[in-house]
Amino acid sequence: MTLLGERPRTDRLPVGRSTAEPAALVAISHGTNSVDGQAAIKALVDGVALARRDLRVTGGFVDVQQPDVAASLGAVSPDSAAVVVPLLLSAGYHVHVDLQRETSAHDRDIALSRALGPDGRLIDVLEHRLRAAGLDTLAQGQEIVLAAAGSSDVRAVDDCLRVGAMLQQRLGVRVTVGFLSAASPRLACAVTAARLRGGSVTVSTYLMAPGFFFDLTRAQGAGADRVTAPLLLPGETAPAALVDLVIDRYLEAKEHAQLF
């Protein structure tokens, strides 16, 4: 297994194994018990498969749902390498520990891509959700609180703070970040602080899809004037920006690992 940024391994394919089939794209999301969340994530994986009909595209989960990572990789042809693309917004424990461990356990060439964020295309979708919710960036006193899941991994927290800074630069509106778990400030506190500064407060939901954390977002963001939808919604075609982002993460990791 090769993680982007590490030296690629070149000794995994036995002599005689065919490399004619391009590396499979294995999209691994967190997993959720929410039917809406499941449908929203499936729409993204389907969108990637539609955009790249030349690739074997399959989905799996690092937690909660099945198939898990091992089963998802096991379903890929043994003659094919694989690139695992985490459908995760920041690189915390699941990327640095769980996915590295799971992908290293397979006897095939596997590359693990970066998480999806930070990236300007995520800002595109966040902006779209904000404007759909009625945000007027020309109005005085606007405050945005970016609602992120949170992590005990400081690298993931830093990723979220960077996205908040990118969104502020894009919109010209003050953006602070509030976390739903594991990190501070918590979303409810961030919303209260924004409210005390006056004006209108909008919670920008920095989550992939509906589920447990989106329910928390609506509960902890109750003091805001509005709460936007997650990046993906059931019944909607996945945003082209997210489809492109997943494909680019695949291509980047595949090139780095020197996979066909």
UniProtKB/TrEMBL annotation:
Q: Which GO terms describe its molecular function?
A: lyase activity; metal ion binding
User: Which of UniProt's keywords are assigned here?
Assistant: Lyase, Metal-binding
A Pfam family per the record: CbiX
Q: Which SUPFAM superfamilies match?
A: Chelatase
Protein name as it appears in the record: Cobalamin biosynthesis protein CbiX
What species does this protein belong to?
Cryobacterium ruanii
Q: Which InterPro entries match?
A: CbiX-like, Sirohydro_Cobaltochel/CbiX
